[in-house]
Amino acid sequence: MKEFITNTKPITDKRILRSQNSPEIAERIKQASAEIMKRNYNLYKELENK
């Protein structure tokens, strides 16, 4: 019969990418937000002019 060894040590070396620790991610979020705001503004203006 095979023996299975389970790893009971918690994984602590995972790095979660967030805007706080990655300037590149922060910039991408800012760009995406600006594009969404512009699109929403244009849609609002189109609806307002109907």
Shape: elongated
Radius of gyration (CA) equals 23 Å
Stretches where pLDDT falls below 50 for ≥5 residues? none
Give the proportion of residues in helices: 40-55%
Number of strands: 0
Question: How would a crystallographer describe the biggest sheet?
Answer: none
**What is the N-to-C succession of helices and strands?**
H
What is the typical, i.e. mean, pLDDT? Answer: 84
Count of alpha/pi helices: 1
N-to-C CA distance: 75 Å
* Structural class by sheet pairing and helices: mainly alpha
Strand residues, percent: under 5%
**Assembly state (oligomeric):** single chain
3D structure, described in words:
The protein is mainly alpha-helical.
TL;DR?
This protein is mostly helical and 50 residues long. The protein has one helix spanning 23-48.
Keywords summarizing the entry:
single chain; 50 residues; mainly alpha; 1 helix
Topology:
Layout: H1 23-48
